[in-house]
Write a structure and sequence with these properties.
By secondary structure, this protein is of the alpha+beta class. The protein has six helices and eleven strands. The longest helix is centred in the middle third of the chain and has 17 residues.
Length: 202
């Protein structure tokens, strides 16, 4: 039935019907902040003031493609030649670690800015103690992290992937973000929304 196919296209989200290179800037920004793999997270404690923080799953396939497209557009607008740009050692270290460890980890990116809290050992220890993932019947602590830099405002938090199943209901995170007013954030992602062609992307 042609009308049924047309109806299905209408109810599908833009990210399901076209690649990131065909998204407009508003669609790209929305996907990076409000999609099955992204949230604008307010403080989790009631009555505690603090800005919403953009957080997304950097290891999810659809998000990797969206981030690559965002970075491509930023480079074009700033007239940056990726081949001629200076390499940030921390960014290069993270890129190598990401490539080697992404299969065993779920990595969150949180836009916290390059703030001085990461120079405070007590703050980073608290982050390591407080950050946690819960998936299915298991919980896991933060296994590694990469702080924001002058070139990259995102904090990257790596958690053990565990045995995530398509039949699980949610993946939840409890986070402590150094240097952010109201530093505690709680996020919940629905497993069923993260299935792409029957494969769980996270």
């Amino acid at each position: 039935m042609p009308w049924l196919a047309a109806l299905l296209v209408l109810v599908q989200a833009f990210w399901q019907t076209k690649p990131p290179t065909d998204w407009n800037d508003i669609e790209l920004a929305k996907f990076l902040a409000d999609s099955p793999w992204a949230r604008l997270a307010a403080p989790s404690a009631k009555g505690v003031p603090g800005p919403p923080v953009q957080i997304y799953m950097a290891t999810a396939g659809p998000m990797e493609k969206a981030v690559a497209e965002r970075n491509r557009r930023v480079a074009l607008r700033r007239h940056i030649d990726p081949k001629a740009a200076a390499i940030d050692p921390l960014q290069e270290e993270f890129a190598v670690w990401f490539a080697d460890n992404r299969a065993e980890h779920v990595i969150l990116a949180a836009r916290v800015g390059n703030n001085n809290a990461f120079l405070n050992d007590a703050e980073t220890r608290r982050m390591q103690q407080e950050c946690e993932i819960e998936m299915g019947r298991g919980k896991g602590k933060l296994s590694s992290y990469f702080p924001p830099t002058a070139a990259d405002p995102y904090l990257y938090l790596a958690f053990p992937r565990g045995q995530a199943l398509a039949t699980d209901k949610t993946v939840t995170f409890s986070l402590y973000l150094p240097g952010v007013p109201g530093p505690f954030r709680a996020l919940e992602f629905k497993i069923k929304d993260m299935l792409v062609d029957g494969k769980l992307e996270l």
